[in-house]
Amino acid sequence: MQGWDQILNLDPASLLQVILRTLVVYFVVLLLLRAAGKRELGQMTPFDLVVLLLISNAVQNAMVGPDVSLSAGLLAAGALVAVNHLVNRCVSGSRWLQRNVVGTPTLLVNEGEFVTEHLRREGITKDEVLQAAREHGVDKLEDVRMAVLEVDGTISVIPEDGDTHRTRRRIRGRKPAG
Q: Which of the chain's ends, N or C, has fewer CB atoms near its CB within 10 Å?
């Protein structure tokens, strides 16, 4: 049976190292996910999920290093929650951070025409945009006023005809506007 000193490591230097390692891993993984683009975050395939799970397993040892004590694991978890909260607060207070960390929406369709440069840059296919249009009740590209890739990876579609939009609300159980 392990002694309490192996289960709970209370060495301040070792625990400080866990915090520093955890912060470095957090920011590097955040940058990697940001570089992967909006589509990757919002529309995960099974392959993306496997990669995300393997990343979490791969960086676990990088965060706690040789210290596998209960206190190191709990401290790493606490540091992740704390730094995530801090980053969210900083991002919400800064337009520059919002734009560069979270990102900005990207126009994919404008007045019934694909914006091919934006599709290519975001790694979105025309078929994916057309699927999103159908999910929004729009059958033809010409009937799309605007389609936008949101920062969370979803595609918002604004139909050319305002009646289509009201019909979708009615389908969802809400009264139409007007």
A: N
